[in-house]
Amino acid sequence: MNVYRNLTIKQKQIVWAWSFLAIPVLFYTVIRFYPTGNAILISFQDWNLLGKRTWTGLDNYEKLFADPAFWKVFKNTFVYLLIGTPLSLIVSFFIAYNLDKTRFMHGFLRMLYFLPFMTSAVAMAWVWRWFYQPVPIGLFNNFLSTFGIPQINFLNSTTNALPSILAPAIWAGLGFQIIIFMAGLRAIPQSYYEAARIDGVSTWTVLWEITIPLLKPTIVFIVVFSSIGFLRIFDHVFNMTTGNPGGPLNSTKPLVLMIYETAFSSFDMGYAAAQTVILFLVLLVVSLLQLRILRDR
Amino acid sequence: MADLALRDLVKTYDKTEVLHGINLDVHDGEFVVFVGPSGCGKSTTLRLIAGLEEVSSGTIEIGGTVVNNMEPKHRDIAMVFQNYAIYPHMTVRKNIGFGLRSSSAPKIQKEARIDEVAQLLGMTDLLNRKPDQLSGGQRQRVAIGRAMVRDPAVFLFDEPLSNLDAQLRTQMRLEIKKLHQRVGSTIIFVTHDQVEAMTMADRIVIMKDGYIQQVGTPSEVYHTPANTFVAQFIGAPAMNMIPGEITNNGSIQLETGGLIDAGLAARSGQKITLGVRPEDLSEHAPASFLEGSIAVREPLGHETLIYVNTSVGEFVAKADGRHPPDVGATVRLGALQENLHIFDAETGSTLA
To answer: Is the interface score ipTM higher than 0.90?
Structure first.
């Protein structure tokens, strides 16, 4: 105890800081860093989960880059990202912006928008899957048929399947983004708007020159957050396309689903690890790019 | 530049009436300060003039036109907010120029106007900075610049100095006053600080609970307060209030035991409150009416405040800065007849 007492205040703070940090550091090392390192290692090996690991060098990566299925999946993943992120951003901002001005049933409406976020993705995917079924089961096609509009093949078409899966995925994340946007909107002092009203600038100018620039930290957060979400999309796709995972001709298959199949259907752990490393690099690059671009210019 | 007139102005929120019929004429080029404790309705009145709140009844005229149903931008006013409301993501130039966004003037003319205003406020070299690179006083000046750039008929200031430290506040007070003398526009200035009101105003409007208590020049409200509220609100430390009664021969019998010859025989038997400012209380007055022992001394350098304990409470007086009486000493204080304020004890309004 004497040793501790003789430390300077600064040193005591360091002792305390590290004793608190020890648990998360240990946790991260065992749960995060060790598996990450191991995955990178396995990506250079051949392993079927039970047998011996054999060193194969860059074989897994060479196979991956030569695999047309990988490039299809890679493209799908970016389609999810490039449609999903901007669309969900615009829709959630539009809803939040208007909900913020609504006094009538404000709490109830906000709850309705937040509800999907709290719902299990699996349950949601299966409900949407039912929506998409052909007549006489599916809600959408039944609705269309009452107006005599021809059937739409939602999940079994190579062109419609991906957007059909993206829609509930966007919808599911909307509630969270709306809440974050509303918090951001609330944080803007009312006097900014009042000053603009007195200066007589248009609503459009206020939106583009005051509201959106001041929401920038919120926008950065949502863009990064939802991009990571769309790059890692899995549960919606998996549950809406069971029986034919990844949709017709892999038209909806994202990278994570491919990794899952390679690892746990084909038991080709080395190949799956190589795909995981690529996903990790993509996530890293996309996040860093967004942070760089969207930070202060 | 223009006159401003408020006629029977009433504001209600749901069922609560917060302004109960305000009547006021502000002349062209006048500097009028609204002062009162929080919740007195001074800011609400300002926001009604600005058009940020809707008038419940009564009228607001600016330059002879009723503006009740006009959008703020059509009222030819500009406002400076308590938190300045300058946009953190824009440079000083853009902030000042924001007020010109809706104007149809050519760009060169707008730029020239921004430069002119910047020069007037002495911040030409700050035009390309962002607000977070400015000090509190400089931000304040940007806010004033944005208001000035449109050359409005009426300037509205909503407690603009309350976020500044004491020293800067004194400095900005002076700057705003000088600016007014140079530009000569009509200014309505809201504050809760009576010192700001006294130092800057041509006329002070003292408000309480949604009513105007008194309108007058700083000297008028100080020397002839309309009621006990004004008397105690203006001036620091506040005026001493001594309860008493008018005797049959028209003198005032104070509860402190003092007797003052007042010649108010017509009001004999009436309960009154006698107001005396601390600086008017003196040991050398012809007749003393207050006796007690000194409980506390507060030396201020040029003078010392002494708190005197009497049978009816504590009163404050100003004493010499160099040789104040000792704590515990007994003093007998009085004041000149002309410095006494007599109020009705029930209504609080001034008598005679």
So the answer is: no
